[in-house]
Design goal:
single chain; 384 residues; alpha/beta; Rossmann fold; Trna Endonuclease, Chain: A, domain 1; 3 domains; six-stranded mixed beta sheet; five-stranded parallel beta sheet; 13 strands; 42% helix
């Protein structure tokens, strides 16, 4: 059993909020985490899986079911399958408002679940569970290549890992995304997802996707928002607040899990990855996902790019004020560029890092430090 770093946050939220929602894509470990945490609270727990017909049958009269178990913690898995429960839970909670009444698990963000955001306002706290990260597992190259889904990372061989991811992708295309409400053909979903994977880390261009798929711009942006809401994409917005220069104002989009990225691009092994031009954007997306999972909640992530080409991969901001930057490099012997130095000067950040896979830790400029990803997340990220 690998201990997840969300354990402590989960326990803290359960000590105060009547409802805690654990969100993340399918097979990311939400159920395992919740069952583990449920053994630590001072309540008997009842588990309801909305994919099991026998459990759905128990909720024929849901209000009665919940009221009869008001002294227990009710865990509801795959809550997005019955969004009407959100409205029902509010009066049940208000009838006896105390911590840890419910734990709800969902494979979609509240923005995709009708009624989720409004019905339980003030009664619920959410945490997002991602794949394994480098605070939880130690094999960076395995995590990068296989991705963070537990069944993929822990597979006994690379081939079994690849087979698991291939089946996962097909299941999402044919079943999960349509079930969540993405109303389009499976072929459109497949083509769109693969196009995003081919353009991983690029500045988003709605029109190019629309032309390729013969769809309108509004539909394309809906697809992107939907896959982000299903925890399959990372969308990094540009930082341009309070900066007068002409800035790029479209987001950069990444496949969230590096293992899924590699299989969408038909990469079979590390040798394939090393030989493809995708390797740079794969490493960039992997670093961004690690940082996103491990940063403090009040820190926002952006990227920075001017229309003249000066850019920085990650800007850390608090209250819309830049406080640090990270440039991501695949080489362990990186150099600083004129554009990087100009961007740092414009942003006015004192803490600036070039993050690589395995380099030593040293200053390359007065306010620019080179370090490995492990060094950054263990020593410098906690300070930001």
């Amino acid at each position: 059993m690998i201990t997840r770093i969300k354990n402590a946050e989960f326990e803290e939220l359960l000590s105060y909020f009547p409802v805690v929602g654990v969100l993340g894509s399918r097979q990311i470990g939400k159920t395992t985490l919740s069952k583990k945490i449920s053994t630590l609270i001072n309540k008997e727990c009842v588990f309801i899986d909305l994919e099991k017909p026998s459990d759905v049958q128990k909720l024929t009269y849901p209000e009665r079911f919940f009221l009869d178990r008001e002294d227990k913690c009710v865990i509801i898995d795959e809550i997005q399958l019955k969004p009407d429960l959100f409205t029902l839970l509010r009066p049940v909670i208000d009838n006896k408002r105390e911590p840890a009444r419910f734990i709800i698990l969902g494979s979609a963000s509240p923005s995709l679940i009708r009624g989720a955001s409004e019905s339980l306002a003030g009664r619920i706290a959410y945490i997002e569970l991602g794949g394994f990260n480098l605070k939880e597992v130690s094999e960076m190259n395995t995590l990068w290549f296989r991705g963070g889904y537990p069944d993929s990372y822990l597979a006994p061989t690379d081939q079994i890992s690849l087979t698991w991811i291939d089946n996962y992708i097909e299941n999402y295309i044919k079943r999960e995304l349509p079930q969540l409400g993405l109303n389009t053909s499976t072929e459109n979903i497949r083509k769109f997802w693969r196009m995003v994977a081919h353009s991983n880390g690029c500045v988003w261009n709605t029109a190019s996707y629309a032309r390729a798929l013969k769809l309108d711009n509004k539909t394309i942006d809906h697809y992107r928002d939907f896959l982000e809401g299903a925890f399959l994409l990372n969308v990094l917005e540009p930082f341009y607040h309070n900066i007068k220069k002409r800035m790029v104002k479209s987001p950069k989009v990444y496949i969230k899990d590096s293992g899924v990225l590699h299989r969408l691009n038909r990469i079979r092994d590390k040798e394939d990855l090393d030989a493809t031009l995708l390797i740079g954007s794969s490493w960039e997306g992997f670093v961004i996902e690690q940082i996103k999972q491990l940063k403090e909640n009040d820190v926002d992530l952006y990227y920075y790019r001017t229309q003249h080409g000066a850019e920085i991969d990650i800007v850390f901001a608090k209250s819309l004020k830049p406080v640090a930057t990270v440039e991501i490099k695949l080489t362990n012997a990186p150099k600083t560029s004129k554009g990087l130095i100009e961007s740092i000067k414009t942003l006015g950040t004192d803490k600036n890092y070039i993050v690589t896979p395995n380099s030593d830790d040293y200053l390359i400029k007065e306010n620019v430090r080179v370090c490995s990803l492990n060094t950054f997340i263990n020593e410098y990220l906690p300070e930001l």
